[in-house]
Design goal:
Elements lengths: L4 E5 L4 H12 L3 E6 L2 H8 L5 E5 L5 H15 L4 E4 L14 H29 L2 E5 L12 H21 L5 E7 L5 H6 L2 H10 L8 H12 L10 E4 L3 H4 L5
Parallel strand pairs: 1-2, 1-4, 2-3, 4-5, 5-6, 6-7
Helix pairs in contact: 1-8, 3-4, 4-5
Bound molecules: nicotinamide-adenine-dinucleotide (NAD).
The site of nicotinamide-adenine-dinucleotide has 30 residues, from helix 1, helix 4 and helix 6.
Family: Belongs to the short-chain dehydrogenases/reductases (SDR) family.
Pfam family, one: adh_short_C2
Protein name: 3-oxoacyl-ACP reductase
């Protein structure tokens, strides 16, 4: 049987690394994409069924070269997980245009570029796109003008992709993680934010990378063959409470 191939961006650590590991447990091959070459080199050593691609998803030339390299190595792509992301928690008046662009370039432009570059390959396999947004894209907050806006745009981009690509058999879904103790989150979650999350999340805890990976790989699998255009919060119930983001 032909092994399926997943392309995971931001795969060197955090949720992307856990997603890579779970795909491999499920028998897939994985193209691990990350701009942090050092971390990627270490991460890929754990796996026999993965290859590293050191590229920046916010740069059109990088994305073209990345797709060319992945297709030359694997010959197909069955799923793309647009997971690479950066965070910056600041209010509007303290966000420079450079801060804004830095967040948009990876979180939004990167999803657009990688999805567009992968679409011809996904048409051939009737593959799946999973875009990683955030609960920060579902609610306003006092701190996340760039991050929250970028993630809200990713949610809409997913709906556009589902509407447009369904006729080619391509499914597109979006996962909105709640808080997970990764390098990205720990750089922006103050002790007050951590305490507030513990109080307001119905399950009273942060999620794990593995819990996110389970949802992501499900959406890429045949088990989700009639699921497209959906926005799924994996957040311990936070989104269901209606309280403000800490
Ligand atoms: P992380 O920082 O642990 O991992 C992100 C990876 O993406 C890193 O390896 C980084 O080098 C890579 N990356 C960043 N910009 C890139 C670029 N332009 N090109 C290629 N690679 C790039 O973060 P994480 O927490 O695992 O985040 C994964 C995704 O989940 C992100 O989209 C993030 O916004 C989202 N998310 C995370 C949380 C959380 O609490 N951790 C919550 C909501 C959403």
């Amino acid at each position: 049987m032909t092994q399926k191939v997943a392309l995971v961006t931001g795969a060197a650590r955090g949720i992307g690394l856990a997603t890579t590991a779970l795909f491999i447990e499920q028998g897939w091959l994985v193209a691990m994409v990350d701009r942090d070459g050092d971390e990627l080199k270490v991460a890929v050593k754990q796996f026999n069924q993965a290859r590293p691609y050191e590229f920046d998803v916010s740069r059109p030339d990088d994305v073209d070269q990345m797709m060319e390299a992945v297709l030359a190595d694997f010959g197909r792509v069955d799923a793309v997980v647009n997971n690479a992301g950066v965070a910056d928690f600041r209010p509007l008046e303290q966000t420079s245009f450079a801060d804004w662009r830095r967040i948009m370039e990876t979180n939004l432009d990167g999803v657009f570029l990688v999805s567009q570059a992968a679409t011809p390959a996904l048409r051939k396999t009737k593959g799946a796109l999973v875009n990683i947004a955030s609960i920060s894209g579902l609610r306003g907050s006092t701190l996340r003008v760039a991050y929250g806006t970028s993630k809200a745009a990713v949610i809409h981009l997913t709906k556009q992709q589902a509407a447009e690509l369904g006729e080619h058999g391509i499914r597109a879904n979006c996962v909105c993680p709640g808080p997970v103790r990764t390098k990205l989150a720990m750089a922006v979650h103050s002790p007050e934010i951590i305490a507030a999350y513990h109080d307001t999340i119905p399950l009273n805890r942060y999620g794990s990378e593995r819990e996110l990976a389970e949802v992501i790989t499900f959406l890429c699998s045949e088990k989700a063959s009639y699921v497209t255009g959906q926005v799924i919060a994996a957040d311990g119930g936070f989104e269901s409470t209606g309280v403000g983001l800490p």
